[in-house]
Amino acid sequence: MVRQPSINAQNRAPLSIERITEAALQIVDGQGLGRLTMRRLGDALEVEAMAIYHHLPRGKEQLLDGLVAHVASGPADTGAAAGSWRDVLRSWAGDYRARLLAHAGVLPLVVTRRNPAALAATVASLREVLRRGGVREESAAVAAHTLLGYVIGHAALEVRGTEEDGADRAVDWDARFTAGLDLILSGAG
């Protein structure tokens, strides 16, 4: 089937990795990860699915890596934030948790996909904040991985709605997240 250009085609932004990633994220957020196909993505972008491969030569594998990197990347560099190192890390952790919860369909990819570039950049940034706060290099490396694992793990439990402590009342996820984060940060220094 030859796709006829739509009337809105002239008003549409050119195809780019960013536009492809945003459209894929909308599909995952709205329909779930299992519904993300290159054909469905092409339909959402109003292009032939093959046009996507021009920007993503590795296809869906590259797209999935891009989704992980997109969700992992923060709105601000942890090095540029003002405040104590603990405040900077609290802000980063809260922002990252919010992105994971907002894009819960990508969370399984964050947990299972091997994306060393995204992980290395995040851990390096966290380690730098810790080192600037006076934490020794060896401890900074462990604390950075612990913090990253805590945020991802907490978001995963939150998305599942797990009440792992057997509480017979609703879990206050914000309070639980903050309390756990405080424990980690108090042990890091």
UniProtKB/TrEMBL annotation:
SUPFAM superfamilies per the UniProt record, alphabetical: Homeodomain-like, Tetracyclin repressor-like, C-terminal domain
Protein's UniProt keywords contain Oxidoreductase: no
Keyword set, alphabetical order: DNA-binding, Transcription, Transcription regulation
Record-annotated Tetracycline repressor TetR C-terminal domain positions: 82-167
Domain HTH tetR-type per the UniProt entry, residue ranges: 20-65
The protein's name: TetR family transcriptional regulator
Organism the protein comes from: Actinomadura napierensis
